[in-house]
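Listing 4. Sequential folding, example run.
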Amino acid sequence: MKIIVANTSHFKYAQVICDTIADSATVRGTGIAKRTPEYIQKKLENGNAVIALDGETFAGFCYIEIWGHEKYVANSGLIVHPNYRGKGLAKSIKQKVFELSQEKFPGAKIFGITTGLPVMKINYELGYKPVTFSELTDDPEFWKGCQTCKNFDVLTRTDQKMCLCTGMLYDPATQTTKDKKLNGKAFKRLKSIKEQLFLKKNKK
C-alpha cells in the first residue's frame, strides 16, 4: 500500500473516487456534497490531493480546497474503498493530506465539516478543535458546495450558523503540545450530541 501526492497520471481513478464517495454517503444515510470527475481531476492536476493505491487498485483518497486567498484550506472528500476499511487507512490518508496542506500553504488555517465520527476523532488527534461555522471561511463559494447535500435546508434555515455537520479547525498560530493531544471527554460529548442530532433528523 502506498499513499502519495496525486497527479495527472491518476485521472483514470476520478470516476471510482466519485462513485465511492457517493456510495458511502448512501450507506451511512448522511448528506454529502457531490463531486464530479472533472472536479476531482482538477485537484489531481494541481497536486492538491493524495491517493492510496494497492498496486494499481484504488484504496483511498482526500483532497485540498483553498479559500479566502489561501488563508484557509480544507481537507475534503476523505474516502476509503470498502475493501480497505477497518485497517487504519483513513487516518494515514488524513495525516498525509494534512502534511501536504501545511507544506503547500504554511500558516493557513485548516478546517473541515463532517458528520462522520471516525473523521472527527482523527481530526482531534491532529489538533483540530470543534468550532462554530462563523470561525470557518466566509467564502460563499465554499458554502455553495453544500447545495447538493440533502441537509442543505438545515444550513439555509440557520443562516449558515449550524447544520448536522460539525465544523473543526486547526489554527497553526495557536497550537501547543497540549492542544495536539486527544481530549477523550470532549470527543465523547461531541459524539453523543451528533448521534442525537442525526436520530432527530431521521425521525422527521
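-- end of first protein; second protein begins --
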Amino acid sequence: MIREELVFGPIFSRRLGASLGINLLPREGKLCNFDCIYCECGWNRDGRTNEALPVPYDLERALEARLMECRDNGTAIDSITFSGDGEPTLNPCFAEMVDVALSLRDSYFPSAKVSVLTNATRIGREDVREALLRVDNPILKLDAPTDELAAKINMPQGTYHVDDVVDAMKKFEGNFVLQTMFLRSPDFDSSSPEVLGAWMDIVRTVRPRELMIYTIDRETPAADLEKFTVQQMEELVRPLAEEGFKIQIKG
C-alpha cells in the first residue's frame, strides 16, 4: 500500500516521465471519494486516519525545498504532479495549492509541466474547474460510460452520475486529458462492444485534447482482475485514432 509524503520523488511515471509528486492528503492514510477496485493505495477502509490535511504554507515550504534540491543536484523534472493517496481535489485548499505549484515551477523548473490526476468527481465546482484549467495537464478520469459500471469499477462514495461528469467535461472545451483504465473481471469487460462503444461516444462528445489509456500495472486490492496488452488496447481504440484523436497507451 503506497503512502506518500506531501512532496515525493521524482519518480518515473509511465505517463508523465520524471514526476515530482504532490500529495494533498494525509501522509499516513488514504482519502478518496472513489474506492476503485484497482487502486494501488488499497481500499479506503484500510487507509483511514485522523491526520490533518496540509495547507498552502505547508506545500510552499516542502515543494520549494525539494525543487531547490533537484535544481542543485541536476535532477530532471518533467512534471510536478498532484496525485498522492486519494483524490487531490478533496483538499479544501486545492485551488490555492495549484497556484503555489505554478509559481514555484516558474521559479525553479519553468520547462516542467504541472499536472493533476483527478477522478473528475468535483469538476462541476467552478473553483476546482478553474484551478484545473490553470495547469498544463488536467488529467480527468472516466473509467466507465454508465453509472452501473462505475459502481463496479470505481465504487463512488456518494452520489455519482456519469452524465453529470460528461456535462462538466464539456465546459473544459477540450482542454484536458481523458484518462481511462482498461481491465476486465468476471463481472465486466472494458472491451465488450456495449462498454467500448458507449465510452467512445463519450470521447466524441467531450473531445479531449488527448486520451491516456492504460491498464493494471501494480497489485490490486480486488482479486481476479485482468490487464490488457498494449497491442490489445491499440486495436480497441483504433477507430478513435483514425478519427484523429491523440492517444497515449501504456501497459
